[in-house]
Fold each of these.
Amino acid sequence: MSDTIAAIATAPAPGAIGILRLSGDGAIAAASAVFRPASGLPLAEQQDRRLIYGALLGPDGSVIDQALATISRAPHSYTGEDTAEVQCHGSPMVLSLGLESLFRQGARQALPGEFTKRAFLHGRLDLTQAEAVADLVDAETPAAVRQAAGQLSGVLGRRVRAVYDGLVDVLAHFHAVLDYPDEEIDPFRSETIGGALDRAREALEGLLATYDRGRYICGGVPCVLAGRPNAGKSSLLNALVGYERAIVTDVPGTTRDTVEERCRLGGVVLRLIDTAGLRETEDTVERLGVERSRCALAAAELALLVLDGSAPLTVEDEQAMEQAAAAPRVICLVNKSDLPLAVDLERLKRRFGRLCVVSAATGEGLDRLAGQVAELFPTGGDQGAGELLTNARQAAAARRALESVERAQTALAAGVTADAVLTDVEQGLSALGELTGASIREDVTARIFERFCVGK
Ligand SMILES: Nc1nc2c(c(=O)[nH]1)N(C=O)[C@@H](CNc1ccc(C(=O)N[C@@H](CCC(=O)O)C(=O)O)cc1)CN2
Ligand SMILES: Nc1nc2c(ncn2[C@@H]2O[C@H](COP(=O)(O)OP(=O)(O)OP(=O)(O)O)[C@@H](O)[C@H]2O)c(=O)[nH]1
Ligand SMILES: [Mg+2]
């Protein structure tokens, strides 16, 4: 028995079409009670997955819209339960009255992600596919869409299950010797098992190597604008996001707190963080801001080091350069190219490798910056789309699986008894089971679906 959930599945704003969605044992009856087909044949008696034209009724029984409705009987539906949908005009008021009608028929408001959670619980999707649904909804670049769509079709899950099956084979070999737990594993078995563990390790290392790319394709690249006060960091942030997000003045020390904004550049999403110019200061507020800048820089995958190209470099520039150089990747931006140049570009180029002459004021050079970002974070086209690890949960589970396999390999090499190695292999299996959701605790599942939209 599952209770009946209902939600508005479309965005909460006026639009062309809006969708009400239901799932659960009472879904078809509830939809049938609030939707009157023009043909006279009740919705509950219609065929699956047909669109039926008719009238949507409000809580008081009056007609509130002309609509299309459809039903899917369990288990042939998205959730695996009885489901129903009403497609009406995309009016927030019509949708909320329609939802109210459904509540009167015994449905309750769906929680965020609850439809997809039910699909997962009924085995319609594994956990990587369910996560892909949320990633697809949030995708901001074509590469992010390709990755999420591939993962939704099950590519990552299959790759993980292949490793899982390999480890199950190892278990099978062990069970053959487990009847004699105190015996050492004979050399023949040890070789077969060793080979299978090698393959599992290779596959897991390969999977973990995808995480860097998967993470920035799916979640964006943490990117810090660093540089001395007045270099033009906030002006560049504004130029990149396309509106006056941060305050800009000619007073050094204008930006106090870190300012975060997302922007698309070179086919990647940058999670841009504008910072307080790095410098020694007596001002308490600014000092705290500089401290935040340092933290942001420490977590950044890309530092955009902003220099004022119209003035000779200062001691503060030198300090900023040293700090930025600690980031995994640095692009040196020589800003204010609309003014006469006062710095040695060749020297900077030698020092940072990547250099871009730009003007936040005119926008000059930002296209070249986009090109450099694209080079640093290649999305790889279709190659591997869908089989990348994209979030910390997946990566942590894969890492735990790899560690278990490595422990098993060490134990095997040391010639310990079979049941000791077996424990390691079982832990590896359990980590992989968490990754696909085959074995996962309810509280972990709950956390994953909380980040979904209502109605998804
Ligand atoms: N209107 C609408 N659009 C939508 C969805 C939806 O639920 N409603 N989806 C969901 O969020 C996504 C599509 N995903 C879906 C996946 C499976 C089934 C489904 O009914 N599967 C059945 C029947 C398949 C068939 O006809 O062959 C099955 O697998 O048994 C429906 C939607 C995106 N677009
Ligand atoms: N001519 C010219 N002026 C610029 C350019 N970019 C920034 N400026 C000016 O430089 C001054 C400082 O700019 P901001 O963007 O506030 O500099 P900041 O690095 O954020 O400074 P703090 O927040 O103090 O660390 C302002 O007067 C800007 O108008 C540019 O490309 N050309
Ligand atoms: Mg600033």
Amino acid sequence: MSSRSSRSLHGGRHELGQNFLHHRPTIDLILELVRRTDGPLLELGAGDGALTVPLSRLGRPLTAVELDEHRAARLARRLPEVRVLQRDALRVRLDAETIVGNVPFHLTTPILRRLLEHGGPPRSAHATGRDQGSQRSGDRPRGDDRRHGDGWRDALLLVQWEVARKRAGVGGGTLMGALAAPWFEFALHGRVPASGFRPMPSVDGGVLSIHRRESPLLPASERRGYEAFVRAAFTGRGRGLAQILGRVSDRQHAGTGGTSRPPGAPHDRTREPARPGARPRGAGPREPALVRTALRAAGIGPQALPRDLAPAQWVMLWQRLS
Ligand SMILES: C[S@@+](CC[C@H](N)C(=O)[O-])C[C@H]1O[C@@H](n2cnc3c(N)ncnc32)[C@H](O)[C@@H]1O
């Protein structure tokens, strides 16, 4: 049996989300967006190279990650100038300046989560062969490389259309978007018909870009507290933000339920600087007048819901109420 028809050890076409892109306008669009970025490239889910081939012509260092061992081997033979890693995209270091991928649709959310959690300070150095095994050197997949830290700046992803819209905040903000907003910008660039993939998936795709802000709207040291505040607002009860935030206590704001750590921030929360004039942690619900003033200052109506807020409004609310 030829390698073209062999089933991967990691699963068949369906399990691996192998819907290969052949929609020329989308390939051109992704390439155009990549041209607007700098530095080394990391492609997740390279498959048969629909994007890898044109990316390899940009003259930038390119690492292509593909879990299917047959496809990875074939791509490495076809494109000797590309560093092909037969690896799990959920475990490789995200250490190139620009991440690109027509990603398997079932992995969209974990890939996005990882990108947002690991979007640390940019690094100019490209991953070295010492750090990660390459297909050419014959290395096999190894353990999680995240310990090294990640430093991507731009991500251009082809994901399900609805996910792309949601992440870009079309039709209302989401918890994930609000959590990421002070550090990342999302944009939607176009819709890809399902017929643009082979085999055809059940839904259309969408091109989503994520840019790590050069000037974050909040310092990294506030990320934990900010995230706890946003989570509390999204999950709190009430008919509008005035009511919801009035019921959110300082204990919730302080991040007792938060899980993620800001890029480069200390693990130990006791080392975070206290805001001047901050109320003691664990204090009870907020004064309604204080909440209303903060909402008014941020241009938010008392009946507005968390999904209605823009990034700058979340930041302003957090700064006023924290
Ligand atoms: C939607 S296809 C895209 C292929 C190619 N980039 C294209 O546009 O035609 C996704 C690719 O990701 C690969 N893949 C699936 N799970 C993976 C994982 N965990 N890590 C890396 N690649 C994976 C699949 O084998 C498949 O080749």
Amino acid sequence: MAMKYKVYIDGQVGTTGLQLRQRLEHHPNIELMLISEELRKDEAERKRLMNSADVVFLCLPDEAAKEAVFLVENPNVCIIDASTAHRTNPLWTYGFPELSPAHRQEIAKAKRIANPGCHATGFIAAAYPLVKLGILSPDYPFSAHSITGYSGGGKGMIQEYEASDRPDAFESPRQYGLNQTHKHLPEMQYVTGISAPPVFTPIVCDFYRGMETCIPLHTDLFLKKVTKAELIAYFQDFYKDSNFIKIAHEESGFLASNLLADSNGLTLYIEGNDQRMTITSVFDNLGKGASGAAVQNMNIVLGLDETESLI
Ligand SMILES: NC(=O)C1=CN([C@@H]2O[C@H](COP(=O)(O)OP(=O)(O)OC[C@H]3O[C@@H](n4cnc5c(N)ncnc54)[C@H](OP(=O)(O)O)[C@@H]3O)[C@@H](O)[C@H]2O)C=CC1
Ligand SMILES: CC(=O)N[C@@H](CCC(=O)OP(=O)(O)O)C(=O)O
């Protein structure tokens, strides 16, 4: 019989928590520790469950996640936090195993893992290799726009979008983060090592799940002069061992944000021509952008096949 590990999800009825639960209910190596509805905010019961788990997922707002960490006293417990709270904390490991073998090895032995933010996942998947391979300087004036389904805003935004009396404005794409202080900017800079955060334009639209994050590339500012074909070859090589990150080209001329909804995949589309290019990450904000990545990190920590219970 398969070895079973005990897993507790704090925030099990939230948007990310429910997604995690669905994935873990069929995981052959996981025994889910569920908390009763009446006690799900009871500190003593949460503490008891957390300290008897092998892995604890935090699917809570940032402040609640910070407080929850202090409830864990058992040094053997691994915490995987889905919130923004610890992503640039050097005592925590950033959970993006595809960036290098060293990133993956660090995750495998970590007890504190910060799961990447959704928009940040799309940005970092493209920007990290560009800088690492010396194609762009860390001083390149990065910008990005990122289209998200409304589930990205959690229970509150889902209710607003699905209300019968919602404003007409919700039918059209809505730009936000207008003051350039989006909560994912610090991790975008921290993980890629770029000199300044990108000019970042998130856009929420009237569909449930899915995301595409697009970085414009001015080829005259390339540090290493590469053609589009060469850039594609560099990315194919960078992600050649990845189970989830792929490189593709869209023939139709249209790139939909919900192409990878319900999966843990992330596809990078390198489009344009040798003068002006774009590189776009397409994935699921609730998949590789949240609970899919969290399950992948858990599988790595537990020494399991990283693709277990993920598509
Ligand atoms: N939605 C997304 O696409 C993504 C979300 N995240 C992050 O994941 C975390 C959760 O987000 P999301 O699932 O969207 O949010 P939701 O608002 O959908 O869910 C949060 C859950 O946490 C519960 N909660 C709040 N405070 C406490 C507490 N003190 N003790 C126990 N439970 C508590 C809430 O309870 P109640 O139901 O009573 O309100 C709710 O069920 C956030 O930090 C978010 O930023 C990360 C990546 C993507
Ligand atoms: C549509 C919407 O509001 N999306 C959220 C991102 C999702 C999220 O919860 O971000 P974390 O991964 O950092 O927790 C936002 O842009 O703030």
Amino acid sequence: MMMENLLLTKGQIIGEDGELIPADIRIHQGKVVEIGKQLAEAGETVIVVEEKLIIPGLIDLHIHLREPGFEAKETIATGTRSAAKGGYTTVACMPNTNPITDCVEGVRRILDTNDQEGCGVRVLPIAAITKASNGNELTDMAALKEAGAFAVSDDGVGVQSPRMMKAAMRQAAEVYVAVIAHCEEEDLLVEGACVHEGQFAKEHNLPGIPGESEAIHVGRDILLAEDTGVHYHICHMSAEASVRLLREAKSRGQWVTGEVTPHHLLLCEEDIPGMDTRFKMNPPLRRRKDQEVLLEALKDGTIDFIATDHAPHTTEEKAQGMVKSPFGIVGLETAFPLLYTHLVATGKLTLKELVDKMTQNPAACFQLPWGRLAEGAIADLAIIDLNSERVVDPENFASKGRNTPFGGWKLKGWPTMTLVEGNIVWQEPGIHL
Ligand SMILES: NC(=O)N[C@@H](CC(=O)O)C(=O)O
Ligand SMILES: [Zn+2]
Ligand SMILES: [Zn+2]
């Protein structure tokens, strides 16, 4: 990619105490070299950002790109474009493709495809914990890491055997890769379980997924991880009991981290309008109490960061009804405006808290060098128009997925430009330099 030196002028950045500060940003050779007021142009291309907010590029450590194997749902090209449009500059993709990313070739293939067909957003491949994610045999984590795997996960299913999970943690600790867990105990599930085992399930006579099916794995894994020294990370936390267990583990100083999705922060089972598969995801939307606890835990730092779990499916797949349709909703293009509008504009989180939990917190949890806006930092940036107001229209998504419960929601705070290492990877149509 061509490296162009840029001068972003008349922007605003978030200061140490959360205040908005007018700022210009000079970018040379892919790095932020100077942040200040009214910087003099020195041969750069000038972009006047007109009072918009400049933040570190967003980082999403849990998405599904679907390639190889499920290209009708999403490809690396469409998924990374969707990420860029949402203000994301780094994404980590789960291995539940076909084939599952459980070998060196699979990891390399994702990196190569992104180099050739991606829009410039950085993709970190997550490799499987067990071969074919079937829970029977561990992958070669040292080789996977060497090939460029970011971490290991069997996302989509829980690792059912505690013995296998313990062995996985031992190996992961030895080669310094994190174990990222989809926590779900299948022994507590019934055939066709599709929504939270609670009020909505009862009213609609649907088989439910209990909160304990998540929490029992969280508790089990915290115990298993304790003596291994592994970094254990909990996917898409949804249940109050899981939060309680994470909080306790952290209070003892254990290396456990957790993420939460925008949909679990903003919705609960009471919001499901009926037999609408756009509200079907795993884990399911739970009680209002769980939703409230998740937000509290995110605010107080128990839950470390926000990840979308962007999970595109085709319209046909999602048209098979509540029981048969696949779990999952898309999230990359709506995450920031949703959370800005419903958590920041309502005073539940500060703007700095929200941005930190989508940038520097995920980076810090996994020792990634991105997610900061400072002199000397890599110029991964998102420019956000906090005042722009638009209605979510899934037909306009860059993602192939249209499966969102947020269609029709009126939101503020849309990204207008995304830069990775100083290169513009997406900009709102109609903006000309
Ligand atoms: N979250 C979901 O509802 N679905 C994910 C799988 C997963 O994240 O467990 C998918 O791959 O579709
Ligand atoms: Zn999962
Ligand atoms: Zn997932």
